[in-house]
Amino acid sequence: MTMGTRVYLARLAALPVFDPNGDRVGRVRDAVVRLRTTNRPPQVVGLVAEMALRRRIFLPIGRVTSMDAEAVVLSTGTLNLRRFEKRPNELLVLEDLLDRRVSITAEDGNQPPKSGTVVDLGMDLNRNNEWLVTRVAVRQHTGRLARRGHTYQVEYDRIRGLVGATDMQGSANLVALLEQMRPADMANALQDLSDARRNEVAAALSDRTLADVLEELPEHDQVEILVRLDRERAADVLERMDPDDAADLLAELPKPEQTILLDLMEPEEAAPVRQLMSYTPGTAGSVMTSEPVILPPDATVAEALARIREPELSPVVAAQVFVARAPSATPSGKYLGMVHFQRLLREPPSSILGGLIETDIDPLQPEANLTEITRRMATYDLVAMPVVDSAYRLVGAVTVDDVLDHSLPRDWRDRDVNDDEYDAGILPGAGA
């Protein structure tokens, strides 16, 4: 894609945006089209970009000097930082138009219309320097499963029903775009959708993806999405969440609902969640992860490095290996110490972990409060600390992201709150 040629709008999603100096501004999250009278093609008036702190701003299309498969480049570094708000005569391409079910009229007008689903919109630059939606990529419905239909492009004036009731909109193509994003970005994109659209799209995500996204959403959005699922599906999603996040989410539900969902979960998945929910809120036991990396003292450095390379581990969990006697699941056998990944990188692969452990930092007790946890982690420059019970068995680890999640205001993930604080000059970058 380059300026002066047809540009397909869905392909712009998540592309980085740069100013003329090559400094990154943010990422493309959507495109804004303005509706016009009769059946004239909508005009593309700009892009929505997401900046730091999840703030969305409007970029006028006239400020864009190039668009290709790698990036969007602006003609100026001066930006209006006012948060984007859609006007009454505007629609967002990904949020409002993608996945619309439409009718496609025949070229000769003699054949009955065919039905299809919008998978992308193409825009062209006209002689008046206006970007207009001129082409629509659709997947034709040929049977009960629309995804088996033929995908092709048609002129905009052959499309009927592109603008209409939201019940004529599916979610498959938007889900496909979202699943290319990081969970935090995907969660942010979901917050921009209407309640009904957000719940529809969330329900269409896989259990694993939805679990990752829920962990990044504000608590009220987590609850709203979870309660809209049938209970069996909700239990499946909770099983795929980190136990500490699942425990936090369940704590927001009424007691009877907590019991039902825990009973529907597999016993081995529900056990650590139940244990975390038994601790006093605001203590190490309630905020820790119960699934740190634990290896026996006779494991080698090579085995430890292989374990922390596993892609499903978060960076803070993979930053250290805790060494304990068997069993190696929490609650483990006697806790012996920990080895940081930097030490693992410096030692021969055949070295035994038992000879490398650090034992000079006392582990936390489950009853330790957040103030004590924060002070000790800051004192020793740690990203994680072990938590042991009265028998000195490892029951979990408190990571720096756990501390941040529970130290920040409860609504820190909420976009509306962050935008209000940004506008008030409270957050970094305000007034830039």
TrEMBL record:
<dbReference type="InterPro" id="IPR000644">
    <property type="entry name" value="CBS_dom"/>
</dbReference>
<feature type="domain" description="CBS">
    <location>
        <begin position="288"/>
        <end position="356"/>
    </location>
</feature>
<dbReference type="GO" id="GO:0015095">
    <property type="term" value="F:magnesium ion transmembrane transporter activity"/>
</dbReference>
<dbReference type="Pfam" id="PF00571">
    <property type="entry name" value="CBS"/>
</dbReference>
<feature type="domain" description="CBS">
    <location>
        <begin position="357"/>
        <end position="415"/>
    </location>
</feature>
<dbReference type="InterPro" id="IPR006669">
    <property type="entry name" value="MgtE_transporter"/>
</dbReference>
<dbReference type="InterPro" id="IPR046342">
    <property type="entry name" value="CBS_dom_sf"/>
</dbReference>
<protein>
    <submittedName>
        <fullName>Magnesium transporter</fullName>
    </submittedName>
</protein>
<dbReference type="InterPro" id="IPR011033">
    <property type="entry name" value="PRC_barrel-like_sf"/>
</dbReference>
<dbReference type="InterPro" id="IPR058838">
    <property type="entry name" value="SH3_actinomycetes"/>
</dbReference>
<keyword id="KW-0129">CBS domain</keyword>
<dbReference type="Pfam" id="PF03448">
    <property type="entry name" value="MgtE_N"/>
</dbReference>
<dbReference type="InterPro" id="IPR006668">
    <property type="entry name" value="Mg_transptr_MgtE_intracell_dom"/>
</dbReference>
<dbReference type="Pfam" id="PF26205">
    <property type="entry name" value="SH3_actinomycetes"/>
</dbReference>
<dbReference type="GO" id="GO:0016020">
    <property type="term" value="C:membrane"/>
</dbReference>
<dbReference type="InterPro" id="IPR038076">
    <property type="entry name" value="MgtE_N_sf"/>
</dbReference>
